[in-house]
Design a protein that fits this description.
Helix content is about 65%, strand content about 5%. It is mostly helical. Helix 2 packs antiparallel against helix 4.
Amino acid sequence: MNGHHPYPQPAAHRGPAGVPPAAARPGPPPTDLRDLRDLRDPRELRDLSELRRVRRSFAVPAAVTVIGGHLLLVLLSGVAPGLMAVPLLGHLTFGLTLALALFAALFLTAWRYERHMRNRFDPLADEVRAQRDRTDARRGER
């Protein structure tokens, strides 16, 4: 911007260089930095990193496997069309079988991911949420 405030204010409310003084700015008053130190306790940060680890422990290998399988299908289709055209059973070819297997693997992966999140991630997330609520309640009592 060229130094102009998007919402002009009366001159009486402007400080030096046209900037409103802190008391006139909207929003909560500035907080003492010492109050900011305890916004996240170390246990909560460990729990959040554990949540990320649990989510990634399944999501990353599953994504690599599914994407790698689809990439393999595309590469084999281009590089080895003869292999992909090998008949296995009637009109069912190796390429079609691989594509159907990848389709099934995608649904199996989604089902396993949902189960993993429900059994491992959600209970941990509920525990972190309850811990945060207890911490917030204690802070509110001060």
